Amino acid sequence: DYAFESDPSLAKLDLVLRPEIEVRPYQTEALKAVVNQDSQDSSKHTVKSGIIVLPCGAGKSLTSILIAAAIKKPVLVVCSTIIAAEQFCNEFLRFTTLMASKTGMFAGAKKWPFNGPSGVLFTTYTMLVDNKNRASDSKRMANFVHSTDWGVIILDEVHQVPASGYSKAITKLKARVRLGLTATMLREDEKIEDLNTIVGPTLYHAKWKELADRGYIAKVICTQIETSMTDIVQKAYDAVQPSNGNQNNMLGHSHHLKSLLAILNPSKMQICQRLIQYHEARGDKILVFCDHIDAIKLYAEKLDRPLIYGGTSTEDARNLLQRFQIDAQKEQINTLFLSRIGDTSLDLPAATVIIQVSSHFGSRRQEAQRLGRILRAKKRSEKGFYSRFYTLVTTETHEITFSEKRRQFLEEDCGYGYQ
């Protein structure tokens, strides 16, 4: 445990929550699980390293800001994308009295330190990984990050840290406390256990269903729609044979081809189109997810809706996200197609409906993260309001097996019924 009040070696950070900010009871519980301020003697106040698990939309950022404001030492915030780092920076400025000059950025082309001996720096996991070919300004910023003694490092989407390279980069940083944030302690490769060593144990874990019942996050109706293939596509699917040439490669290729046919099943596209039309007419905001880049490009083109994927520039993505959030008739976007890039770190409180046309095998974490995109729906407090989560599945294909695994997770771990 770190006795932060009695450590004069780190410069104090003037970080105070704005008086009008409303803190929810479970956020206070999370704060108490991490920071011990029970003693009358402030020199005995301590903070420990570990992980906070809160559903998307339950205010993970604010919870971590509460902890940083209690410690009042230099903060490093590590995010998964540039947009997420910018969003986190905006939250610090919105929720606290922190001056903009006390924030620094080391993400993409934005590279500047904060002013003075203490502040908050925002970066991404990618920027922390050693890169021999860094430009001089990046080298200077990397040196700043590594030479600074951080009071607390906030690791957003901490489940990504066990990825090779990231964990090594994190352990090299000098920090009194490491605080991980995630919506789900799941990785399909079982490496989640590594977080115990790299960050610390889970200190607070809020149950999704409980928060929904208390009105903090939206209630969700999950629906799986199963559709069979058209005869032509079924014939093509059955005709795909693994070649005896390079077994591994070809098996991979045949699986790729079969999954593409299952996604591009015309009946599935038709159902997707009808759901979009139905929900747009009701004034909903819809996110359509597909992991397969070629397939999602085709869907977006055929259904004439905008798309954000890895090849979309940060500027275009930012513009589309802003237009998705607004209700003005002229500029607004009501449906947005997203590749796997939309699984994490996009702040989209306007979204009320998700349509999943394909997903990453049976990944439970991905299912939870996608569901999280509609948990903070702005209308969540309206009587009788439910967000909707649709999974479209082609029958008699591998999609059925994978969807069962994910469905079981949502029912058992998150408490959401499927229909």
TrEMBL record:
<dbReference type="GO" id="GO:0016787">
    <property type="term" value="F:hydrolase activity"/>
</dbReference>
<dbReference type="GO" id="GO:0006289">
    <property type="term" value="P:nucleotide-excision repair"/>
</dbReference>
<dbReference type="InterPro" id="IPR014001">
    <property type="entry name" value="Helicase_ATP-bd"/>
</dbReference>
<keyword id="KW-0547">Nucleotide-binding</keyword>
<keyword id="KW-0067">ATP-binding</keyword>
<dbReference type="GO" id="GO:0003677">
    <property type="term" value="F:DNA binding"/>
</dbReference>
<dbReference type="InterPro" id="IPR027417">
    <property type="entry name" value="P-loop_NTPase"/>
</dbReference>
<dbReference type="Pfam" id="PF16203">
    <property type="entry name" value="ERCC3_RAD25_C"/>
</dbReference>
<keyword id="KW-0378">Hydrolase</keyword>
<dbReference type="GO" id="GO:0000112">
    <property type="term" value="C:nucleotide-excision repair factor 3 complex"/>
</dbReference>
<dbReference type="InterPro" id="IPR006935">
    <property type="entry name" value="Helicase/UvrB_N"/>
</dbReference>
<dbReference type="InterPro" id="IPR001650">
    <property type="entry name" value="Helicase_C-like"/>
</dbReference>
<dbReference type="InterPro" id="IPR001161">
    <property type="entry name" value="XPB/Ssl2"/>
</dbReference>
<dbReference type="GO" id="GO:0005675">
    <property type="term" value="C:transcription factor TFIIH holo complex"/>
</dbReference>
<keyword id="KW-0413">Isomerase</keyword>
<keyword id="KW-0347">Helicase</keyword>
<dbReference type="InterPro" id="IPR032438">
    <property type="entry name" value="ERCC3_RAD25_C"/>
</dbReference>
<dbReference type="GO" id="GO:0043138">
    <property type="term" value="F:3'-5' DNA helicase activity"/>
</dbReference>
<dbReference type="InterPro" id="IPR050615">
    <property type="entry name" value="ATP-dep_DNA_Helicase"/>
</dbReference>
<feature type="domain" description="Helicase C-terminal">
    <location>
        <begin position="270"/>
        <end position="419"/>
    </location>
</feature>
<dbReference type="Pfam" id="PF04851">
    <property type="entry name" value="ResIII"/>
</dbReference>
<dbReference type="GO" id="GO:0006367">
    <property type="term" value="P:transcription initiation at RNA polymerase II promoter"/>
</dbReference>
<comment type="similarity">
    <text>Belongs to the helicase family. RAD25/XPB subfamily.</text>
</comment>
<dbReference type="GO" id="GO:0097550">
    <property type="term" value="C:transcription preinitiation complex"/>
</dbReference>
<feature type="domain" description="Helicase ATP-binding">
    <location>
        <begin position="41"/>
        <end position="203"/>
    </location>
</feature>
<protein>
    <recommendedName>
        <fullName>DNA 3'-5' helicase</fullName>
        <ecNumber>5.6.2.4</ecNumber>
    </recommendedName>
</protein>
<dbReference type="GO" id="GO:0005524">
    <property type="term" value="F:ATP binding"/>
</dbReference>
